[in-house]
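S.,

Sequence below, as promised.
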Amino acid sequence: MRKLGVITFLILIGLWLSGCGNRVELNELGIITATGVDGKSGAWIVTYQIIIPSAMASGTSGGGGGGSQAAVHTFSTEAKTIREAVDISNLENPRRLYFSHNNVLLIGKKSADQGIDEIIDIYLRNFETRETVKVLVADGEARELLKQLTPPEKVPGVALAKILAKDNQLGSFFPLITIYEIAQRISSESEAAGIPEVSKVGSEDEKLDTIEVFQKTSAKAKLKLTGLCVIKGSKRIATLKQKESQGVSWLNNQMNSSTLSFTDPVKKNEEKRYTAFQVRKAKVKVTPIKGPLHYTLKVDVKVRGELVESESKINITKSKGINQMQQLINKEIEAQIQNSWQTIQDLKVDLAGVGNKIHRKYPKEWHKIKKTWPEELARMDIKINVETVISRTGLFQNSFKKQIGK
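The prediction came back faster than expected:
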């Protein structure tokens, strides 16, 4: 009897432990693919982009089949805090919001101007949100940009994440940055971070919020990465252009791949001849050097790549010509870095993380200059050394224009 009682007890315990009393069915979840935040502390507007599984499965959103249902539904809620806005969504949304598949966090420009510390706080404090979500700043209101569809992708949130990933892999114009990395950088000694900005470019009248855009072979408007928002402390203070942002990528050793276009030295009234060099591998070492009066930033760049287009008159069949071409590439890279460094100094914002490097290398000296670091940054000199290796010149040695005698 005692054994029977023990066995019965164990069976009951097993049944109790294997229960799913707090389970949530998939058809009760609203899977978030992108989130937008507008407003400021005490008056937040949070926007949610939810996947519609039936539209995804049937292919009715722009992929043919004559359907009329978009793959996502977008709506917004308002509250004093961001978390309260999420709870208020239950008053109008029949499904429980599920953030684990959130690809992108889009922050409105005015909110970025006011400060993003409260946004970072909720993403790092709550287990439901992912600190690895990719972050963008909207050129305007986040809730408006999240309504825009991005052909050929059905889900705009996924499309924005892919655009960031492809640029990071192939262009290196703008950094791919997560909410955790932003928090890490603005809480470091440099107190600065760069966040890519996305804009709606093209025709203002073009509507991208209906599936009719999928029925066209070309749209007059589109979403595009257009700048790099400079965050100092927790607020946006400026936006860098594409070339300036690419120079920041060099300084942060984030140049994965990119195409550099440059010309031969030209005389007056002479036609410009362009050459394109594809960066395949780049390594950048940035070292602060303490001088008698102020610091100097030593930048060593090693690049390997190939010529992918050329109209140059330079004879690259000989080593002298290859050396000339490599020197032109060196000058182009140096100019990009120098231009970005000048912008950094003008803004007095340490986007290159120089303060962190000085803190590690000269910890005692750092405490002396920490309070006046922006002014010290503006006084620093920079010495740039670039070494380029052209590993391939392509199937042609000289340009086709030169081959036919033009």
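The first helix runs from residue 2 to 17.

Coffee later?
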